[in-house]
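Submission sheet (multi-component)
Chains listed below:
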Amino acid sequence: MITLFAILIGMFMAFAIGANDVANGMATAVGAKAITPKQAALLASFLEFLGAVMFGAAVTKTIASGIVSIEHIQNPNYVIYGAISALLAAGIWVMFATVYGMPVSTTHSIIGGMIGFGLVSGGFKVVYWSKLLKIVLSWVISPVVGGILAYLVFKILTVTILHRPNPLTAAKKVAPVMIGFTFFLISFLFTFKTLKKTYAYSAIVGLILGFIAWIVSYFLTIRYVKRNSNDYDAVESIFKNVQVLTSAYVCFSHGANDVANAVGPIALIFMIKQTGVTNFSSVEIPKYILFIGGLGIALGVLLYGYKVMQTIGHDITELNNTRGFSIDFGTATTVLLSSIFGFPISTTHKRASPIRIFWTLRC
Amino acid sequence: MANIFNKLVPYRSPLELFIEHTILCVEAAGVMKEAIKVYLNGGNIEGFSKKIDELEDKADGIKIKVREIYSKLKWTYFNKSDFLDILHNTDSIIDITDDVLKMLTMNKVENIPEDVAKDILQLSDLVSESVIHMSEVAKELRLIVESAFAPKEVKEGDERVSVVEKEEHSSDILGLEIGKKLFSKKYEMNAVDIMFLNSIIILLMRIEDRAKNVVERIRMITHQ
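Outcome: structure written.
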């Protein structure tokens, strides 16, 4: 019964994440009218689910057992009720913030909830302060890394496309390379970290998939790109479509990182229910727990996130498609890498950083 | 959680709106040129005035929209006050064309000397051309931003700016010549008519001056 209750709250939290956060991932693509809000919702829900199931385990492990030292809490029931309390508190806070339009992070909320539960049940000694410091540092470092990555990607686009004598001809060559590289990165990381294959094997898989993506996108670019009144508009039209891919990449990495905010405490409850103790040696996150979280996020996107995306769909960003692409790429790559290393970070707050860097460096 | 991105993205691109605004300036300058032609030939210009009023309303709408967007935007390509100042200058172009039209409806000058009429027409032509070139600089500004400030686009923008500067210089010279010509006719023409036509010329030169201000400020923000 208590497990079912925890699942329900976790689903509610996952639903809230899908309903609100996912719109951020697809905002630029919908705003640029590259896809409709309905298409964006379908695509986002699928990719959020996929990201959660494929890469969600490491961060879930951090939320479940990397913040509070549960072996110091002798009574398993304390941990179960504590995890439910943390989840419930974070869920209520997130809903409250959503109603009042406050830009809060689900990541910060759940970590705050877990710390609160730890302090109440075991005092200061049960919180992993050094690990927490690393997590907090990642909140400071990751936006900077995302910003630098976005800046570097945009500088590459500037040198290889925008400052060339024929930007359109250059874009037809460079855009498919960017797409190929994105596929290489995702497939390499998935094979290496999730499937636990060797470095060389993962690199070969990444290269093959990246090469296929490059070839396909090259022919699609050649086939469908039309010359506009000026070369820059034509380049933007290419990147308008490529942005669908990077927005999808943002959703995928978002699913990988934020699923933990909903299922981390559930994973903890499941493990205690299974073992009956609080001092289990290793933590293995069952795939079905990630599946539950992914499903909740996907439902949130489909049932409510669609409305949020429709609102954003009316906006045309001051950032054009090439800049939007760079920001999405920088954000998604940093979020995905953070997910792999088990750092729960806020995707909502992170996105503003590349834009701030763009603005400061006047790109 | 809530959409921080929503606060970062405007409903319309301010640059696009600015270009639309300059296109309205071009239309207004064109209408004014036609009205001056009709006036100098002794025709009725009431209809032209109405047209300018409509353009002014549209321009005000755009100005409000840009201000609204800018008040929500956290980060923009250019300094907000610089951009709004440029917009203020383009807006004043339409306002001055409206002033010219209103002035023309106040007084009917009969028997304008042919050489003066010809020069006034030439001046209004020059002014209208400058406003067209100013609008082209605004379009170039969009290309400069899209090209990530590509040196070739910045150079192209600078060249267009210097065209407007040269035109402003020519208009200044022509305006002074017309003024001198008018005052030299103080014993032949009605003094009020001389002052009236001189006021029209000063307003035309002011439009040219505003167009120059706009392009110079555009050059300034692209070189910051």
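Remark: Chain A has one domain: 2-361.
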